[in-house]
Design a protein that fits this description.
alpha+beta
């Protein structure tokens, strides 16, 4: 039978059920704090309520956000952010731990490959765990959210983008007239690529025209184009 047909929804573990009942009796809440993912020891399996841990833990991190399902008030949608350097495994199991490290809920998943990126790319992966509770249990749950990692990753992405823009700008500024000639097939000599306006001669060369034959270009060839120059070129 295909794995997809064997996927089960989240299971509240025996330990989780015990803690939820006790918290309800005492009017307290248990703090859900960590998401965990594993590879199931390389095999797909169906989780059971007596589990106290994943088959093979591959990553653990703090919850970064959550929401109550808009379709089911007893379902929590819990999210985490796996760093880009985590990988070399297929995720087949996922769970949530409380602040004391106990496995409260667990589920199997279709195999999802995690590939580490270590060459400067910022490709963190969002993971989502849908946890189904009973009415009496949901009131005894508190989610501890730590958005710090998410903000740190945003800063890393922003830094990476700024670096890429700077590198591109340096490459553009380093382009020579000869290289422009090769790209366009037209001799263009404008001194500096960035920041220097085109003269009439430059425009004539780009248009493959001889400025000596055109009084408009002849008139404006000695300096930058003014608004009047542009009007003359456009025939306005």
């Amino acid at each position: 039978m295909p794995e997809e047909e064997l996927i089960v929804g989240s299971i509240i573990t025996d330990k989780g059920a015990e803690k939820l009942v006790q918290a309800g009796k005492e009017g307290k809440k248990i703090d859900l704090k960590y998401l965990v993912i594993g590879d199931g020891n390389g095999e797909f399996y169906k989780p059971t309520p007596d589990q106290t841990a994943l088959k093979n833990l591959c990553w653990q991190g703090e919850i970064t956000s959550y929401e109550i399902s808009p379709n089911d008030s007893k379902q929590l949608i819990i999210k985490g952010l796996v760093p880009s350097d985590v990988g070399h495994f297929f995720m087949r199991e996922i769970g949530v731990l409380d602040s004391e490290g106990d496995l409260i809920a667990v589920s199997n998943t279709s195999a999802v490959e995690f590939i580490p990126y270590t060459s400067g790319e910022i490709l963190n992966m969002d993971i989502t765990f849908y946890v189904q509770f009973r009415s009496a249990e949901i009131g005894a749950v508190n989610i501890v959210v730590n958005p710090t990692d998410q903000e740190k990753f945003k800063e890393e992405i922003l830094t990476e983008v700024k670096s890429m823009i700077s590198e591109i700008q340096v490459e553009i500024e380093a382009i020579t007239n000869e290289e422009i000639d090769e790209i366009t097939g037209t001799p263009v000599h404008i001194g500096t690529v960035v920041g220097e306006p085109l003269s009439g001669d430059d425009i004539a060369r780009l248009l493959d025209d001889d400025p000596s034959n055109d009084p408009v270009f002849e008139e404006v060839s000695t300096g930058a184009l003014s608004d009047e120059d542009i009007d003359k070129i456009l025939g306005e």
